[in-house]
Amino acid sequence: MRKREIISALVFLAAGGIYIAGSSRLSFGTAEQPGPGFIPTILGLVMIVLSALYLVPQILRGTARGNAGSAGSGKQEGSGGSIIPRKSLAILVGLALFVLAFKPLGFLLTSISLLFAMFRITEYRNWAWSLGVAVISTAISYLLFVTWLKVPLPDGFLESLLFGVL
Amino acid sequence: MDVISQLLHGFSLALSPVNLLYALAGAFVGTLVGVLPGLGPLGAMAILLSYTLGLEVTQAMILFAGIYYGAMYGGSTTSILLNIPGESASVVTCIDGFQMARKGRAGAALTVAAVSSFIAGTLSIIGLMFMASALAETALKFGPPEYFAIGVLGLIVLSSLTGGSILKSAMMVVAGLMVATVGTDIISGKMRFTFGLTQLGQGIEFLPVAMGLFGIAEVLSSLEETATEGSLIKVKWRDLLPTREEWRRSWGAIFRGSFIGFFVGLLPGPSPVISTFASYSAEKRLSKHPEEFGKGAIEAVAGPEAANNAAVGGAYVPLMALGIPFTPAMAVVLGALMLHGVTPGPLMMQTKPDLFWAVVASMYIGNFMLLVLNLPLVGMFTSILKTPKNLLLPLIVIISLVGVYSVNSSVLDLWVLIIFGILGFVFRKLGFEVAPMVLALVIGPMMETAFRQSMMVFKGDPTKFFTRPLSGTLLAVGILVLVFPMIRRLLARKPSSVERTL
Q: So what's the ipTM on this one?
């Protein structure tokens, strides 16, 4: 657990640092006339101080317990596996692929694929049911959003195939 | 009586068929998510946020109020019958509610829960009406320093009430404020932290952030939970009536719970949840037979159920009167208002009286609907629990994706949704609360503008924040809230047993 906390503290620390670097390009202004960089600089500094306050006790406690190995390096042996469990990770990858493919491939194909993938990942019944429910619920949402609510969802080749024939 | 005539006007608006429909829909959806574990009112409101764009702002508000109330009703049903809290504000109800059910008093517990929810809801709406009007009038005199101070106080109180480490909450607050600075600086018009993306010039949209942090993250977390199979306790119609003794013991708890709930609701933080704990421990302390608590004491159902409903009314006060949301759910409601171009604040009750009073009236109506609908539909709602999670969750994901995309037709918003979904999930795992971050994100721009305007007025002297009576008091309270627990911890060096049991 300790390692996780040290890593997260380091991430916050780095975020504070990058943020300050970004705010240094904005004009700081004066106390009387604070510029666009005034608040960001202060926020970045506060973030660095807070993450340091969080980080230092973690490191101290880590060494005080006499943990084998240096604290803060390596992430192989976090207790209880990785932070994101495999199923959630698979869904997240699916979501990222969905967003990448959404515009080029269109709503129908990407929605059916994502739903099917999610049903399989969560082990919903069997693959035939998964595919069926994916197709039916995509069709319902298409009718609901595109036909009824007139939400402009991107068209892909499945749409042109279906509605080109009709 | 100005309030009465305005309320009557509100009723005339809320009773239009369309608005009634939205109140009913809200109550229904709310009960549904209240019954379903995993998805709470917050997640539901976040997911539906994008769909409210097609509605009128009043209808959107009526819908959201219904969801919030409905969830409080729905959560109690599964707590009592299945020992499964549908949402976090019903955890306390499980303790004695389920014990009552095991003794064959499930029907009585359900009735008392519904009646106390109704009474508390109604009382807190009355509180909301008067408090919001009074507060808004006072707030008209507020200048930028006061708004800045309220923001600071709100964030401090929220961070210390959210539970967990204050340091971690403070880090989340700063992170939220940092995200809030992305986009065009309001005062100078300069682009900040946009990484050359013109779409980011408008700032990071609240909607995909909230949907990611609450909606997607909730879906991911509930994937991990193993399904809790409970055996449903059957309730017969004639068992629904509590005995005279049960009523007698409930009344005091209901009124105390309403009172506690409303005032806890005014505070920043997850107030419905906290109010239930506060009410439970109050009832236990006041009870003549505290030994019954945990074994099916009816006060322990009536009090907390009243409290969580009353807290909803309380939570609306700072939002309606000051335009400052104190709870994550209210931040989402604020998001809905801003999507419709309404900026809440002390002037809103004067410029948009129809909105305020129609929402208040719809809350009365919604509460009544819930009282009438809740008991007969108990069976239906509990059977919804049998819907497999692995069917429901993927569908919720698709609804969220389409919803976010539909607002701006922006793929960037979809990325924001997913990134904040991951962040929300990971933060929770690491024990970082996301609520302070969301609140900071929402009120960050307001606070920055207020701060910079104040500094101009103060000619660069920040001590004037403390010397102005009102802003000074608010900031002093904030510092006390921050420092007090630290001092107490230093003095005690031992967690008190009361805190442990809570």
A: 0.85
